[in-house]
Amino acid sequence: MIRCIDVAADFEDSIAGKVHGGRRTWVAVKITALLPDAHALIKLSSHVLNTRPRLSIAFPGSPHPSDLNVLESGPTSAISAEDIAAIRDLHSDLIRICMRAQERGVKIIIDAEYSWYQPALDALTLSLMRRFNKLDSSETSKVQPLIYGTYQAYLQRTPGHLAQSFADAKANNYALGVKLVRGAYHPHEIAAHAGVSDKRSLSISPDPQPPVWMTKAETDQCYDACAKVLVKAIKDDLLSTGAPAPTVGVLFGTHNWASCGLILDELVDSGLAHKGERDQVVLSDDVTERLTIGQLYGMSDDLTNHLVHKTSSNTPLIIKYVPYGALSEVMPYLSRRAIENKSVLGDGGAVVERRRAGAEIRKRLFGGWFAK
Ligand SMILES: Cc1cc2nc3c(=O)[nH]c(=O)nc-3n(C[C@H](O)[C@H](O)[C@H](O)COP(=O)(O)OP(=O)(O)OC[C@H]3O[C@@H](n4cnc5c(N)ncnc54)[C@H](O)[C@@H]3O)c2cc1C
User: Fold this and answer.
1) CATH numbers and ranges of domains, the chain
2) ipTM, 2 dp
């Protein structure tokens, strides 16, 4: 991870002064890959669900600062000394990663995973945000927010969890970093919940209903509603005077054309962007400092290209999310993308994608006017 941060920072250093605006490379962290046995995180998740103060937010809830107290207080019947030692090591590794990111001015995103890991991942993310996204302190990072958590719109908890996150950030004076995605594990969540009485099921939800929405339309509606809340939060941040740095940063991760269209419309309607020549959506540096839209590398390049042409800004607004790591480590990620690509390429999508790829090859070989 440290090497990855250095590579990203070296790249940013190499273009400093040549391009306008701040540093735009991020490093994403998949926490379950950072410890020898991810089961320790499920134990921590169960422990915090049983011990944290109850809020009226659906499973897997929203983190509380007391969630990691068990790392100091020691083992219980639910979590062993070995598990605690593994999570302590993980926590100090994460702090080292964030310190390097702070030194080198590279943003960190904590990826979201299965719901049975989420209470533990949320607790770790909260502790990192409270420390590294702190505003008004001598240690304030020059890049803000430095740490981003991931919010999965397919979880029914997400609107409540997002509201609680904003309230905690405001009350404790730190910047909130939000990556909004729909969520990658829907079939697994349904299957695990259906087998909850089976000892082999990993689900830890106490609820009779699955934690995810049951229809795609509900997830879409949740994504778009949260997107509106986030655009409004950016607007409120820009209107409030006296903030030393952004108090909110948002990365929209999606391949959904309708959601991307809605985000651009919201930006224009709220006055954060305006329509320029050829109907382009023009964004100021203040807005792009707080907002990014991303697709996964190798997926939906037509959408990425469309967004790049549809928008105009001094600093890049549209990014690609690139897997980095040993092949054996990134294989589960790549196979999930292969399955996802199948659904993206259904309904004639494959024909469109083949045409787009053909046009791109012709353009690169023969130049612009052979492309069509
Ligand atoms: C930059 C980026 C970063 C990402 N990081 C993460 C991450 O950290 N963690 C993570 O979990 N995912 C992550 N993803 C993947 C993401 O969660 C989605 O799986 C993927 O992007 C497909 O959703 P979509 O918004 O692109 O569009 P769409 O193709 O419109 O939506 C597909 C999604 O809809 C939801 N869905 C499908 N069927 C149903 C149903 N029957 N009921 C309810 N909902 C349903 C699922 O979430 C499915 O993935 C990331 C994606 C991007 C682009």
Assistant:
1) 2-324 (3.20.20.220)
2) 0.99
